Structures are given as C-alpha cells and as structure tokens.
Amino acid sequence: WARLRRVTFPLFFAPEIGTGAVIPMLAAWPAAGGGLPGLAAMLGTAAAWYGAEWRLAARNGWPRSWRWPLACLARDLLFVPIWLAAWVARDIVWRGNAMDIRTKPARLGTDASAA
Asked: If DSSP codes are grouped into helix, strand and coil, which group holds residue 56?
C-alpha cells in the first residue's frame, strides 16, 4: 500500500514518515542537547506518545497488555524502512498478480480502436 500511495499521492505520502513516534523521539535527542538529557527527552517523548495511544485504546475498550507498547514501538520502527522502500520499489503483487505501478506519461490514442 505504501508504494501505491507514493505513486498516487506523492505530496501526501512524503510527510507520512513523521506520523510515527520515531522522528519525534529522534528529534528530542539533539533538542535536549544529547547525552543523558537527550535520552531522558527521548524516553519522555515515547512515554507521552505511547501513553496517549494507551489512553485512546483504553477509552475505546481495546485490549492492552504489557506487550502493547512494545508492539507500538515495533510498528513505528518498521514504518521507516517501509516508507523508504516505497520510494525505491516500482512493482507490487496484488492478489497474486504482479503489477508495475510506475507513472507513465499519458498518450493520446491515434488509432481507431482508441476511440
């Protein structure tokens, strides 16, 4: 789906990398000056981010366990390579059918069968 979104809506797909917690957590490190304060800022950012997700899940009655924050972190960490791969790869397999999703220039039909 990431590859298809990149081709279909590139201006909307480009900023999607910032929708997970990884970029804000990485930005917290230099913002706090690195070192131990940077680590504390990263952990605080993660606690705020995943704490908000935890509260939303609780409010909606979704199941949660001690593994839930780890699963959210894994999801956000995997989002980065998926996003990067979407910029490079050009083909997908959809329901067992190989497809090429590169954008192609539009051509006007010149033969009678195009009408």
From this structure: helix
Are the C-beta atoms of residues 29 and 19 closer than 8 Å to each other? no
CA 52 from chain centre, in angstroms, equals 18
What six digits make up the tokens of 50?
């995943």
Tens of pLDDT, residue by residue over 7-54, are 766 777 788 888 889 889 999 999 988 899 999 999 999 999 999 999
> Mean pLDDT across the chain, nearest whole number?
83
Range of the domain at 59: 2-102
Q: Classify residue 83: in a domain, yes or no.
A: yes
Q: Would 17 be classed as within a structural domain?
A: yes
Q: Are 69 and 54 in contact (CB under 8 A)?
A: yes
Q: Measured at the alpha carbon of residue 73, what is the angle toward residues 68 and 74, in degrees to the nearest 5?
A: 95
* DSSP reduced 3-state for 101: coil
Detail the DSSP E strand segments found in 1-115: 91-94, 97-100
